[in-house]
Amino acid sequence: MTGCPGLVAGALLLLAALSGPARAQRVEDGSDAVIGKAVAATILGMVGERFGALDPKVTALRKAEGGWICGSVNVKNRDGLYIGERGFVADPSSAFFGRVPEGPELLNPRAEGFQALERTRQLYFTMCLD
User: Fold this and answer.
1) Could you tell me if residue 55 is left (phi over 0), alpha (psi between -120 and 50 degrees) or otherwise beta?
2) Could you say which of 11, 71, 101, 128 would form a disulfide bridge with 61 (CB–CB 3.0 to 4.6 Å)?
3) Which of 21-25, 63-67, 78-82, 122-126 is predicted with the least confidence, judged by mean pLDDT?
4) Nearest one of 128, 95, 101 to 115, comparing CA atoms
5) Facing residues of 99 across strands?
6) Nearest CA to 106 among 122, 91, 128?
7) Secondary structure of residue 27 in the 3-state scheme
8) pLDDT on residue 21
9) Which residues in 21-117 belong to E strands, given as ranges?
10) Nearest partner of 61 among 94, 37, 25, judged by Cα
């Protein structure tokens, strides 16, 4: 079998691009100007790590107390449809990122991870709602 160096190089380049860390592409509504480009890039990195495969759309970024950032993220479901924006709270200095849980996620206080979900909900309500 004869090799095609251009094809192999292209395949390797594509593989390298796909294997890198997932990142959200951009802030959809320009609200990154409110928090600054550097902080926005950090937030997009956090969102991308968690939701990169779900093609996240970030909006409504704003500053909260103590350097925390509030915003919204919309991701695709298994059918490739966006499911609707949900709030998030993030602290770039500690790399904490939490998306507000949906009601069913909070039904069982004995479920694994319940305390973390409840903490995220409380942080969002305290820091992000006026």
Assistant:
1) left
2) 71
3) 21-25
4) 101
5) 88
6) 122
7) strand
8) 47
9) 57-63, 69-74, 86-91, 96-99
10) 37
3-state secondary structure of 72: strand
pLDDT at site 130: 77
> What residues pair up with 116 in beta bridges, in sequence order?
none
User: Across residues 75-97, what is the average pLDDT?
Assistant: 96
User: Which tokens sit at 17?
Assistant: 């691009």
Question: In this predicted structure, what is the pLDDT of residue 1?
Answer: 46
Q: What is the pLDDT of residue 81?
A: 97
Rounded Cα distance, 38 and 48, in Å: 15
pLDDT (0 to 100) of residue 26: 84
**Single-letter amino acid code for the residue at 32:** D
Compare 123 and 7 and report the one with higher pLDDT.
123
* Tokens 């802030």 -> residue: 27
Residue 122 token pair: 């409380």
